[in-house]
Amino acid sequence: MFQAYRIGIVLACGLVGLASAATVTFDVRPANETAGDEVVVFPGDEVEYVVTALVESATATADNQGLALFTLTIDTGLGLQQNPADAFEDFVLTDFTFGQSLGTVDGDRIVGLGASQFSLGSALLTGVGVGEPQILARGRFLTPTTEGTFTPVIEDGSFASVVALSGTSTGSATAVAGAGFTICTSTTGDGGDTGDGGDTGDGGDTGDGGDTGNGTTPTDEGGLSAVEVGALIVGGAILATIGAFALSSTLGLLILLIVIPLLGTLGLLALGAQ
């Protein structure tokens, strides 16, 4: 069935035996370009993929103008029933209008994904896949619910033709398969994403910068102690008494009555300042 489908596309493409040294490399890659050659997911997750084509000439001078027809099979290697591809790219839908097929499912294989430009002397879309791989279709692989490593690839036996230099006819090309990519199903998740890049706390905040109280400690400001104040008061009283007896009795008594309360007041003020 697949062989008959391929022959039908070739005939509809209007091939007239035009030779070309072009090589078309088909590949299946992760839809996320940053994933590289390996995608790690939880068992049972879906993996988005793209099918690409790269058209190269055998010589420095181009001998073609890009892809005209493609038909290929994806061997997922995942060991469970898959689905056809989800969609073609817009340019495939509008210009590769003949024989469009998103593939027929055969277990874990997607067979006969392809489409063709219709060439009966009319101008064809040029430049497809020239210079860099170009996406043709997109889809999603279903992964098993067990851990494992799997490598979806394009099977050998793909078929391609290219737009001839005239731009209105097609030529044959050699179709080869790329390396595919690896899917790893693991209970650890999506490729080592362990959080926010090693955030282990708040940057080493271990407190409030060493604040162990209210930020102040008592300081000795050079004031007199209670003992020193008391000694001054007693000494002052003795001196006042001696001075009172040294003078006349009436004047000495007056001095005593004034000096002692004054010394007491000074002592209280000094103690209040401690």
Jot down its keywords:
seven-stranded antiparallel beta sheet, single chain, 15 strands, 274 residues
Describe the fold and architecture.
The protein is an alpha+beta fold and 274 residues long. It has helices at residues 2-12, 90-95, 226-246, 249-272, and strands at residues 23-30, 38-41, 46-56, 67-75, 87-88, 98-101, 104-106, 109-116, 134-142, 148-150, 153-154, 159-163, 170-172, 174-177, 182-185. 23% of the residues lie in helices and 29% in strands. Strands 4, 6, 7, 8, 11, 12 and 13 form a 7-stranded antiparallel beta sheet that branches. It is elongated.
The 3D shape can be described as elongated
Low-confidence stretches: 10-17, 192-222
Please bin the fraction of helical residues.
10-25%
Strand and helix order: HEEEEEHEEEEEEEEEEHH
What is the CA-CA span between the terminal residues? Answer: 108 Å
Strand proportion, as a percent range, falls in: 25-35%
The strand count comes to 15
Biggest β-sheet description: 7 strands, antiparallel
Round the Cα radius of gyration to an integer and report it.
Answer: 48 Å
